[in-house]
Amino acid sequence: MKNVFRFLVFGGLALAAGAVAAESKQSKSPAKKVWNFDNLDGWKLYSQDSNPNQQCSIEKGCLKIFTRAGSDDRKKASTVEQVYTTGRYKWRTYVPKMGVGDQASVGSWIYCDDQHEIDFEVGYGKKEVRDKLGAKPGDLVAYMTTQAHPFSSVPVLVKPGWHTFEIDLSNKDGKYHVQWLIDGKVRHSLTQTFGPEFAFHIYCSVENLKFLGDRPASQDNYGLFDKVEYTYHD
């Protein structure tokens, strides 16, 4: 009888704890967050390279990030909190004209870990990719990528200038269904093999990445981020 009582008590406590944990996890995703970049409150900066300089600043209400010509600079800003799940992620991002063949990327993306990452990466693009897309001088290539589960990377052409990049995550039978939107138009969609059990940081970045071009960057490249928004939905 004691064992039955002990099972009922501790089993009940475990169920209650599980319910609290589930409620806590659900409550972590805010209904809406907007960052206008008058400051960096709620964001952190770091470098994924050998250069200790952050190269990130607030200028005229925008987050500016830049990389140096010929370097391996990878400069990033992310939300402090890793609590974002289903919902609409939106960046208003300025991508400038880049050097021909430059291995440089302006990124608007979300990240849990190296296997659970969903991106927009915009740069000049390799010649073979540009040729396949029919790129004209001045066009840039925007990659819409998931790093794994499954891996997918789809390139489309965009012009330099201001763009609204959006990643929409909906819950499809417990898995994330991803839509990538550029300036309000759906450009790609894919269902992941994982779902809201994985929460994300939100990122802005400028990185000198080899897959975005045919040669080391010939000039300093930069990106401007005017606003980032997150709106929860299930």
From TrEMBL:
Tell me the organism: Akkermansia glycaniphila
| Signal peptide as annotated in the record | 1-21
Q: Which GO terms describe its molecular function?
A: carbohydrate binding
Give the taxonomic lineage as stored in the record.
Bacteria, Pseudomonadati, Verrucomicrobiota, Verrucomicrobiia, Verrucomicrobiales
List, alphabetically, the InterPro entries matched: ConA-like_dom_sf
Keyword vocabulary terms for this entry? Lectin, Signal
Tell me yes or no: is Cytoplasm among this UniProt entry's keywords.
no
- Tell me the protein's name: Concanavalin a-like lectin/glucanase domain
Asked whether the UniProt record includes Signal among its keywords, one would answer yes
